[in-house]
């Protein structure tokens, strides 16, 4: 008998929660500039720390929400240096450390607790009377949830302060607070037709009933809302995959349990991916401090490296892969790198960034109309609960843009800017739209150049680092000529070369029971994974999850279509203040923008002790291994007296072999590598030891070294300061360079 769905009525009981928001952007004073040197941070960061300390001091119990564990550790370490008793709580700390922080806060032993989304729900933290959100909450729902932790009771006021760090942050926070007050909360985007979930539930059904007809399984599954549009063909493919993995038997449109069904089902009760976590073990106290994600360990962790966890500095003594443990010792060095936990970036919704675009457009109109800062602030505060400093930060960058005669990118204007081989596309698209369009552009450009293109995005910009010059006008042409319908196939094609798809495929295959939980993804080749899993439900699920979590194909198609119809203007101009303001976060605030003399001296000393290989590209016979400090001011080959000497890094030995090859047998790639060595040698020919110093620096090749060397400057310290900036830029973007 066919089951008739029950009718239901939705009754909404409107209980208006009293919310009080304040958006602030503290300006540093002389005291902040002094304290910033002690805290190894910018004066702006010192001002933020002071404001947080003062707010906590005025309230009985304050939660300080941050968006990432990275930011939590950064703030926690600085408060510890200041001697301020504020705890840290996030998911990568050990259970003991989290319980200790919760207990101390709830019992009033500490007046403030820095936390991530780990404290949004479910934990009774007592009577909280104020919430601080450090930097934009990114989403309306997060702001409402977090500030709602204060005054948690019927009829009580929930008050919160958002501390912003720049123009984008202040405008974004303004848009979010207005939307929160108006009840404009984001729609929840459900995962629909998730095949690994379906596989799990099919196994659960056969364990419950022994065997079922295909039609019965289909009717049960279709009753669940996320599977209401499920096609029978997809269900058959999933069951066949389970049968191939020997988890169920499947014959004559009937599915049943096997001996492996029980073991698989209870090993996969949760659909959360099983990621390897490395325990941080303090050798001094003999206690576990927390945990680090596998990706961070692979990219960063090595003996001697320094990082921050639980607000304290640690030096790595040993990495034990077999036991998934990192042995550390506590230190007091304030220069440690903050653990870079993955997967934590909260995506800013399209609707929020579009309102930021409208804010910019409105401010631009008022500035062009001649309104002063006071008039702009009076108008702004009618719509948004921001203080004068926050409004001033937003209007200042828009005013600077207009003063330079440049367009202001907004909700109806996309602006493409160029600085040599760096292209910045100013587009108010949000994380997922910008990630989608950025991947499409980088793929098309990589195909054109024959080499990879580095990409970085934030909610308001797409940044591309090109291997050679390519005009911004040509980027505009690409946007105008690429069919919106080609976005999805281009994205899927490019995913096949990424670690992201490999990582996701391994996790999905584990959830399907096709791979064991203990399989090390690093030991599986991408080619082998594709050969085995392409054209299976597992491959389709991995792609679907990436599309759902990381990208927004449909919205990107819509935005690109609007550009091509002229509904959104696409213009080209030179680098602008708004374009250059992106990609800043807690890490930038932690370290002073201008390193002090002690840091510069340490950098110079390190470079002078680094090794280089001097190689004559004229006779191609002479080479000499030197430390940089022993490189002559004017290097010269003792065999042929040529001054065409390349200064290569120790790991560039292979380049000498390539240069020595006859040109007639070199591949196109080898010719490019040879040309790069000659560019290196020409720099040394023109600038001697100065070029060798720049070329010995980390991540700096001939092109970047040329820019650093040729820049006019007053003293040697400025030269090393520019090298430090180049090294930092390389460190921030190197993870985006993949084949």
What does this molecule look like?
The chain is an alpha/beta fold and about 750 residues long. The chain has 5 domains: about 20-180, Rossmann fold (3-Layer(aba) Sandwich), CATH 3.40.50.300; about 195-265, Winged helix-like DNA-binding domain superfamily/Winged helix DNA-binding domain (Arc Repressor Mutant, subunit A); about 350-405; about 415-575, no CATH class; about 595-735, no CATH class. The protein contains 29 helices and 22 strands. Strands 1-6-5-2-4-3 form a 6-stranded parallel sheet, with helices on both faces. Strands 11-10-14-13-12 form a 5-stranded mixed sheet. Strands 17-18-16-15-19 form a 5-stranded mixed sheet. Helix 13 packs across helix 14, helix 18 packs across helix 20 and helix 28 runs antiparallel to helix 29. The longest helix is centred in the middle third of the chain and has 20 residues, at about 430-450. Residues about 335-345, about 585-595 and about 735-739 have low confidence and may be disordered.
């Amino acid at each position: 008998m066919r089951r008739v769905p029950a009718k239901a009525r939705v009754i909404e009981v409107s209980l208006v929660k009293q919310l009080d928001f304040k958006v602030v952007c503290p300006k540093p004073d002389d005291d902040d500039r002094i304290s910033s040197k002690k805290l190894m941070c910018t004066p702006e960061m010192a001002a933020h720390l002071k404001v947080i300390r003062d707010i906590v001091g005025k309230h009985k119990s304050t939660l300080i929400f941050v968006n990432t564990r990275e930011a939590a550790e950064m703030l926690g370490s600085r408060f510890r240096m200041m001697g301020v008793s504020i705890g840290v709580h996030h998911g990568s700390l050990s259970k003991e450390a989290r319980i200790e922080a919760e207990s101390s806060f709830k019992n009033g032993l500490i007046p403030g607790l820095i936390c991530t989304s780990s404290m949004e729900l479910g934990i009774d933290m007592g009577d909280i009377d104020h919430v601080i959100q450090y930097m934009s909450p990114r989403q309306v729902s997060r702001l409402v949830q977090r500030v709602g932790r204060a005054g948690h009771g019927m009829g009580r006021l929930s008050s919160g302060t958002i501390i912003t760090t720049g123009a984008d942050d202040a405008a974004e926070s303004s848009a979010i607070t207005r939307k929160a007050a108006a009840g404009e909360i984001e729609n929840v985007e459900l995962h629909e037709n998730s095949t690994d979930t379906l596989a799990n539930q099919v196994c659960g059904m056969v364990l419950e009933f022994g065997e079922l007809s295909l039609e019965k399984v289909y009717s049960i599954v279709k009753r669940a809302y996320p599977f209401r549009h499920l096609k029978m063909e997809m269900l058959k493919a999933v069951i066949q995959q389970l049968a191939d993995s020997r988890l169920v038997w499947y014959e004559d449109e009937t599915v049943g349990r096997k001996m492996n069904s029980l073991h698989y089902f209870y090993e996969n009760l949760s659909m959360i991916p099983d990621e390897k976590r490395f325990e941080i073990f303090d050798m001094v106290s003999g206690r576990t401090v927390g945990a680090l994600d596998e990706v961070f360990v692979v990219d960063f962790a090595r003996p001697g490296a320094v990082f921050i966890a639980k607000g304290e500095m640690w030096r790595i003594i040993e990495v034990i892969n077999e036991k998934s443990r990192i042995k550390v010792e506590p230190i007091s060095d304030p220069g440690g790198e903050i653990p870079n936990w993955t997967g934590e970036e909260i995506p800013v919704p399209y609707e929020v960034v579009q309102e930021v675009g409208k804010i910019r457009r409105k401010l631009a109109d008022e500035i062009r109309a001649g309104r002063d800062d006071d008039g702009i602030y009076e108008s702004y505060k009618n719509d948004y609960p921001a203080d004068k400093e926050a409004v001033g930060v937003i209007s200042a960058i828009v005013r600077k843009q207009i003063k330079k005669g440049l367009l202001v990118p907004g909700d109806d204007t996309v602006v493409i800017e160029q600085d040599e081989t760096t292209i910045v596309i100013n587009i108010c698209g949000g994380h997922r739209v910008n990630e989608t369009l950025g991947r499409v552009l980088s793929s098309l450009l990589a195909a054109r150049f024959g080499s990879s293109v580095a990409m970085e995005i934030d909610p308001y910009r797409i940044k591309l680092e090109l291997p050679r010059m390519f005009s911004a006008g040509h980027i505009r042409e690409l946007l105008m000529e690429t069919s919106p319908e080609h976005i999805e196939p281009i994205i899927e094609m490019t995913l096949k070369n990424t670690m992201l798809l490999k990582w996701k495929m391994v996790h999905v295959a584990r959830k399907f029971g096709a791979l064991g939980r203990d399989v090390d993804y690093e030991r599986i080749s991408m080619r082998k994974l594709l050969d085995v899993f392409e054209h299976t439900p597992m491959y389709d699920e991995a792609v679907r999850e990436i599309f759902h979590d990381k990208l927004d194909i449909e919205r990107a198609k819509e935005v690109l279509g609007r550009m091509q119809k002229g509904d959104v203007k696409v213009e080209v101009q030179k680098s602008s203040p708004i374009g250059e303001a992106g990609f800043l976060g807690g890490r930038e605030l932690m370290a002073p923008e201008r390193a002090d003399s002690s840091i510069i001296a340490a950098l110079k000393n390190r470079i002078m002790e680094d090794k280089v290989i001097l190689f004559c590209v004229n006779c191609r016979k002479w080479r000499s291994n030197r430390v940089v400090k022993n490189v002559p001011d004017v290097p010269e080959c003792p065999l042929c007296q040529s001054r065409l000497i390349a200064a290569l890094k120790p790991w560039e030995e292979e380049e000498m072999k390539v240069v020595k090859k006859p040109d007639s047998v070199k591949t196109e790639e080898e010719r490019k590598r040879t040309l790069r060595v000659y560019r290196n040698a020409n720099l040394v020919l023109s600038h001697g030891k100065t070029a060798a110093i720049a070329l010995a620096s980390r991540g700096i090749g001939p092109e970047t070294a040329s820019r650093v060397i040729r820049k006019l400057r007053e003293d040697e310290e400025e030269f090393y300061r520019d090298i430090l900036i180049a090294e930092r830029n390389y460190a921030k973007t190197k993870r985006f360079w993949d084949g």
